[in-house]
């Protein structure tokens, strides 16, 4: 290797592989928890009208105030709480790490969980502490989390609610115990909020170490890249200091604000995805050898017969369907694939390719 790279790039960065996104052209895309539905045609035309006359020679509004107001209204964000926008929630995770990193500062989360908590912590020089979930149902091991908090004193704790890649939602009382026991900042990551009925958003002022992170990605706007953090203004004022100027571009600001004014469209899509989730779960469950886990998100984690995950993944790809193979990523995910809930036709194709019978219509 180039000696200069070796001496200048930190060993932990050199040891990494850049984030891999598989080629998906021409495939049914059930790998990335996207909403499979686009906008009704009338809405598309109306949206295009809002783009007419935008001045791309000017920088965007640095704080995205019109968009913030649209978010507050659409998501019923408590008035006294602050809002901070990110280029996807990934950027918010990065801002949190940049704000709280210092020698010895740690990030804690549960495993298996969303990998970017650990990765971005590492980028910022923070050590990661991962507490295993319970093996039978991926619920929190509360005693183990509390013991790790006591032992490691993490500056930053992430809990995804519901969790990715397992799809379950942790017990709310356990979450509260963790918030109340933590000396650090607790981030409840509600990326999958459109697909579940519980949320900490309305409670965010109840503790001075709680912030709630959301994204528009899973709701149906992954292409816009917009995440938002809701929490006590004093916390957000600190995190805002590491935000890059103009992090939310003009097209995203205008398009997201427009979409939020038509949130009913996305709510209807989320309802359709939830109904499909039940049908897909039932169909997967009736395929011999498959063990799908119940989900509060827009994907279903499924255990397949031992040693078969790679072959099933490859077979699905051959059949034109891209899913996520999690086998080998964590001991609790051995023989596991993750299927994003798609349209009824896409889900039927998945079930057929797995050798099952798609759920009947209706
Ligand atoms: N949090 C969780 C739990 C996720 O699963 C994801 C995406 N897979 C994200 C955050 C990041 O979402 P985005 O950057 O698109 O907002």
UniProtKB/TrEMBL annotation:
Pathway: Amino-acid biosynthesis; L-histidine biosynthesis; L-histidine from 5-phospho-alpha-D-ribose 1-diphosphate: step 7/9. It comes from Thermochromatium tepidum ATCC 43061. The gene is hisC. Gene3D superfamilies: Aspartate Aminotransferase, domain 1, Type I PLP-dependent aspartate aminotransferase-like (Major domain). It is an enzyme of class 2 (transferase). Its cofactor is pyridoxal 5'-phosphate. Its EC number is 2.6.1.9. Signal peptide: none annotated. GO terms for molecular function: histidinol-phosphate transaminase activity; pyridoxal phosphate binding. The modification N6-(pyridoxal phosphate)lysine is found at residue 218. This is Histidinol-phosphate aminotransferase. GO terms for biological process: L-histidine biosynthetic process. Belongs to the class-II pyridoxal-phosphate-dependent aminotransferase family. Histidinol-phosphate aminotransferase subfamily. Homodimer. The keyword Amino-acid biosynthesis applies. Keywords: Amino-acid biosynthesis, Aminotransferase, Histidine biosynthesis, Pyridoxal phosphate, Transferase.
């Amino acid at each position: 290797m180039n000696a200069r790279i070796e001496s200048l790039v930190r060993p932990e960065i050199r040891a990494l592989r850049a984030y891999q996104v598989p080629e998906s052209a021409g495939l049914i895309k059930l790998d990335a928890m996207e909403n499979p539905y686009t906008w009704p045609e009338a809405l598309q035309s109306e949206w295009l009208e809002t783009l007419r006359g935008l001045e791309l020679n000017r920088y965007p509004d640095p704080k995205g105030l019109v968009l913030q107001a649209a978010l507050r209204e659409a998501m019923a964000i408590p008035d006294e709480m602050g809002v901070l926008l990110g280029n996807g929630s990934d950027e918010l995770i990065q801002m949190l790490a940049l704000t709280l990193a210092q020698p010895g500062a740690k990030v804690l989360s549960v495993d298996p969980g969303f990998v970017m908590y650990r990765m971005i912590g590492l980028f910022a020089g923070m050590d990661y502490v991962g507490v295993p979930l319970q093996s039978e149902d991926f619920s929190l091991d509360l005693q183990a989390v509390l013991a790790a908090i006591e032992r490691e004193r993490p500056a930053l704790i992430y809990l995804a609610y519901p969790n990715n890649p397992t799809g379950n939602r942790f017990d709310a009382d356990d979450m509260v115990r963790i918030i109340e026991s933590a000396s650090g900042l607790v981030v409840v990551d509600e990326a999958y909020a459109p697909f579940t009925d519980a949320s900490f958003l309305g409670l965010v002022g109840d503790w001075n170490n709680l912030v709630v992170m959301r994204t528009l990605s899973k709701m149906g706007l992954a292409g816009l890249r917009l995440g938002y953090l809701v929490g006590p203004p004093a916390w957000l004022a600190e995190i805002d200091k590491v935000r890059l100027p103009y992090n939310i571009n003009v097209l995203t600001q205008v398009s997201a604000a427009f979409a939020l004014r038509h949130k009913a469209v996305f709510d209807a899509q989320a309802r359709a995805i939830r109904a499909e989730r039940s049908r897909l779960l039932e169909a997967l469950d009736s395929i011999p050898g498959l063990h799908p886990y119940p989900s509060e998100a827009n994907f279903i984690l499924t255990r397949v017969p031992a040693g078969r995950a790679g072959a099933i993944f490859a077979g699905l790809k051959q059949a034109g369907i891209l899913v996520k193979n999690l086998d080998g990523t964590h001991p609790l995910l051995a023989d596991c694939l993750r299927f994003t809930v798609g349209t009824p036709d896409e889900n039927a194709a998945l079930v057929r390719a797995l050798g099952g019978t798609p759920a009947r219509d209706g």
